[in-house]
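G., the chain you wanted modeled:
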Amino acid sequence: MVDSGKLIFVLKCMLAAYILTAGLLLLLALMLYRFGLSEKTVSICIIVIYIVVTFLAGFLAGKRMGEKKFLWGLAMGCTYFLILTAVSVIVNKGIEDAAGSLVTVFMLCGGSGMLGGMLS
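Predicted structure as tokens:
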């Protein structure tokens, strides 16, 4: 059975991760408006945002849980990916647009979350 304290902590971490993501994406939008960034630059920045946010979520989870840190980091990265995918499917009314990059984004989110957990 899952400890309710751990579940609440995971939910708080995910909320913080998505608030940080929203803030960084707003900053990116401002930079796009101000400096006219190219599409390639914006795509790279979005990937970097995913990596940084899941790394931090994994780091916090590993620090808090104390044992099996890499698994908690991986869980945070995978949870982030699942929520991101679900929102994308709902907004785009299908998975066709994102299907090509799903595996890559999953590996980036899971891997950076796990790395964050290992380094905590």
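The longest helix spans residues 4-35.

Shout if anything looks off.
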